[in-house]
């Protein structure tokens, strides 16, 4: 279920957490300043309600919030025409719904579509693919593939925290890659993760055969060594030139370089300096 907490977690995980100015909304709505104000106001009301109600109260309310016209004006100070424009913009984007409790002179009620708002922020502000909130997300907003047991992941994060080991976003991505590699090799991921939890290891590694010598390593050295090895391999692959020239110009330059090198070698053989 999408809530304001879900949205805040997703945004915070990207380093652009909500401030009092709601900068993410401003980026989304651009020059529509009135709509920006109204959206920030609705989100603030909705988040307050989500945070101060029981699960039963939230279920009964079903996302709808009640605010009088006076309360709305006192908070965002919009003229009637700007208010109507802002409301129309949010409805066009599918972000908000509004209705009166009674057909005439009833108090206006509002409902934010948190899922739609999340989708727009992720795809248009952060330029990333939208992933359903039903996907696994740890307590810090990091999204996990389905094959990673969330309960063991959280226990591993807690074990690292208790050992004062800082875990960055890159570290988490590396952990997932390690688990994927171990899964592909046929290892039981839950057993692998439990071992790292018990030892508070900084990463996930192949089980040690029972007849292999045991060490007192806490996993940090092994994790860092493996990480550095993979990064070095990546840098080497990126720096490696293409095996063959691809375009006609590259082919011409390639042959010219070969002829030049051949001439230099020939001169060296004849006893001449190459310059």
Count of distinct strands = 5
Mean pLDDT: 76
In terms of per-residue confidence, which ranges show pLDDT below 50 for 5 or more consecutive residues?
14-21, 214-219
Arrangement of strands in the largest sheet:
1-3-2
Radius of gyration: 29 Å
Q: Helix and strand succession?
A: HHHHEHHEEHEEHHHHH
Structural class of the secondary elements?
A: mainly alpha
Question: Which term fits the overall shape?
Answer: flat
Q: How far is the N terminus from the C terminus?
A: 73 Å
- Strand fraction equals 5-15%
Count of discrete domains: 3
Number of helices: 12
The share of residues in helices is: 55-70%
Question: In a few lines, what is going on in this structure?
Answer:
With about 280 residues, the protein is mainly α. It has helices spanning about 5-10, 25-30, 35-50, 55-60, 70-75, 80-90, 115-125, 150-160, 170-185, 190-200, 220-240, 250-270; strands spanning about 65, 95-100, 110, 135, 145.
Helix/strand layout:
Elements: H1 4-12, H2 23-29, H3 33-52, H4 55-61, E1 64-67, H5 69-76, H6 80-92, E2 96-100, E3 108-112, H7 114-125, E4 136-137, E5 143-144, H8 150-162, H9 169-184, H10 189-199, H11 220-239, H12 248-269
Antiparallel strand pairs: 1-3, 2-3, 4-5
Helix pairs in contact: 1-7, 2-3, 2-7, 3-6, 8-10
How would you portray this structure in words?
- With 275 residues, this protein is mainly alpha-helical.
- It is 57% helix and 7% strand.
- It has three domains: 4-125, no CATH class; 140-239, no CATH class; 247-275.
- The protein has helices at residues 4-12, 23-29, 33-52, 55-61, 69-76, 80-92, 114-125, 150-162, 169-184, 189-199, 220-239, 248-269; strands at residues 64-67, 96-100, 108-112, 136-137, 143-144.
- The strands form two sheets. Strands 1-3-2 form a three-stranded antiparallel beta sheet.
- A hairpin with a 5-residue loop joins strand 4 (136-137) and strand 5.
- It is flat, with a radius of gyration of 29 Å.
- Mean pLDDT is 76; it is low at 14-21 and 214-219.
């Amino acid at each position: 279920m999408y809530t304001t907490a879900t949205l805040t977690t997703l945004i915070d995980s990207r380093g652009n957490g909500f401030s009092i100015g709601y900068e993410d909304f401003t980026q989304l709505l651009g020059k529509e300043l009135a709509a920006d104000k109204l959206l920030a106001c609705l989100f603030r009301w909705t988040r307050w309600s989500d945070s101060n109600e029981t699960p039963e109260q939230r279920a009964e309310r079903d996302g709808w919030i009640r605010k009088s016209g006076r309360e709305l004006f006192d908070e965002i100070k919009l003229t009637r025409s700007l208010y109507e424009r802002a409301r129309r913009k949010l409805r066009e984007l599918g972000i908000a719904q509004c209705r009166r409790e009674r057909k005439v002179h009833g108090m206006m009620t509002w409902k934010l579509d948190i899922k739609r708002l999340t989708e727009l922020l992720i795809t248009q502000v952060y330029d990333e693919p939208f992933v359903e909130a039903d996907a696994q997300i740890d307590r810090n907003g990091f999204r996990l593939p389905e094959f990673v047991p969330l309960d063991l992941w959280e226990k591993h994060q807690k074990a690292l925290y208790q050992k004062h080991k800082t875990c960055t976003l890159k570290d988490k991505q590396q952990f997932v890659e390690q688990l994927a590699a171990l899964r592909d090799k046929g290892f039981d991921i839950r057993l692998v993760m439990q071992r790292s939890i018990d030892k508070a290891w900084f990463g996930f590694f192949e089980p040690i055969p029972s007849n292999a010598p045991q060490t007192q390593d806490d996993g940090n050295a092994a994790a860092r060594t493996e990480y550095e090895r993979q990064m070095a391999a990546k840098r080497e692959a990126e720096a490696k030139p293409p095996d063959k020239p691809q375009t006609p110009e590259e082919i011409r330059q390639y042959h010219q370089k070969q002829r030049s090198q051949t001439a230099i070698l020939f001169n060296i053989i004849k006893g001449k300096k190459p310059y």
